[in-house]
Amino acid sequence: LLGRVQAFLEHHRRSRADLTVAVKPVPREAASSFGIMRVDADGRIVEFVEKPKDPEVQDRFTLEPAQLASLGFEPPAGSLLASMGIYVFRREVLTKVLHGTENDFGHEIIPQAIGHFDVFAYGHTGYWQDIGTIPSFHAANLDLTDTAMVIDYTGPSPLATIRTLISTGYNGGAWDGTGVVTSAGPRYPGR
C-alpha cells in the first residue's frame, strides 16, 4: 500500500506536475459515472469532462490501446480513462485553485486547471473500487473477503482506523446455521 502511494508521489515529482490525477480504465457503459479524460503521449491530461452521458462525447474520449498501455494498462478496446478521485497537488497550486468560488473538482477545478497548470495522469494498476453508491460500497466490502484478494495489512504501512465507540444492539434473533441471524430488529438495553 505504502509503495503504491510512494510511486504515485514519485510520478508526480518526476513529471513536474502541478496536479496529478490517479486514473483507471473503465468500460464505456461505466463512463457516465466518472470524470473521464484524454491524455497525450506523455500522460498529460489534455481534456476532462465529468460524467459524460452524450455518446458523441464518450466517443471522443475513448482511448487507443497504445495510449492506455503507456500508462501501464491492458484494458479491453473501447475503454475510457476515469479519474479515481485521488489527487496530488503542489501546495501553491492547490491554494490557487481553491481560492476562487469553484468547489467541485470534477466539474470545475480539474477542467480549469488543465488550461493553466501542468496536469498529469497516474495509472494506478492495483485494486480500486469506486464506493459512491451503496451497491459499489457493498461490492468493495465483499471484495475484501475474497481469499484471492491479496492485501498486506501487516506490511510497513498497515491500514489503520480510529475505533469509535458505538453501542451495539442485541437482536435476540435466531442463528439459522448458515451464519445468518434473523430477527425483527435490534433491541437496546434500557429502551
Explain what you see:
With 191 residues, the chain is an alpha+beta fold. It is built from 6 helices and 7 strands; from the N terminus they run H-E-E-E-H-H-E-H-H-E-H-E-E. The chain has helices at residues 2-14, 55-61, 65-70, 91-99, 105-116, 134-143; strands at residues 19-26, 35-39, 45-50, 80-89, 119-123, 174-175, 181-182. It has a 5-stranded mixed sheet with strand order 3-2-4-1-5. Strand 2 (35-39) and strand 3 (45-50) form a beta hairpin. The longest helix is centred in the N-terminal third of the chain and has 13 residues, at 2-14.
Largest pleated sheet: 5 strands, mixed
**Mean pLDDT metric:** 80
Shape: globular
Q: Name the helicity range.
A: 25-40%
Q: Give the SSE order as H and E letters.
A: HEEEHHEHHEHEE
Strand neighbour order, sheet with most strands: 3-2-4-1-5
User: Roughly how many Å apart are the termini?
Assistant: 44 Å
- Tally of helical runs: 6
- Indicate the low-confidence ranges by residue numbers: 167-171
Whole-angstrom Rg? 21 Å
Report the portion of residues in β strands: 15-25%
Global structural class: alpha+beta
Number of strands: 7
